[in-house]
Write a structure and sequence with these properties.
40 residues; mainly alpha; 2 helices
């Protein structure tokens, strides 16, 4: 849970910098993070 929260914060920070928040669907982000965790 802790790692997931950190990742979420990083994604939100990046989205705010680029101004493309709408291009980062939360479901898609979670799916990609899940895949990375499984491969790690």
């Amino acid at each position: 849970i802790g790692d997931r929260g950190v990742n979420k914060n990083e994604i939100e920070y990046t989205s705010r910098r680029t101004g493309e928040t709408e291009n980062w669907p939360l479901d898609e982000v979670n799916s990609r993070l899940a895949e990375k965790l499984q491969l790690a």
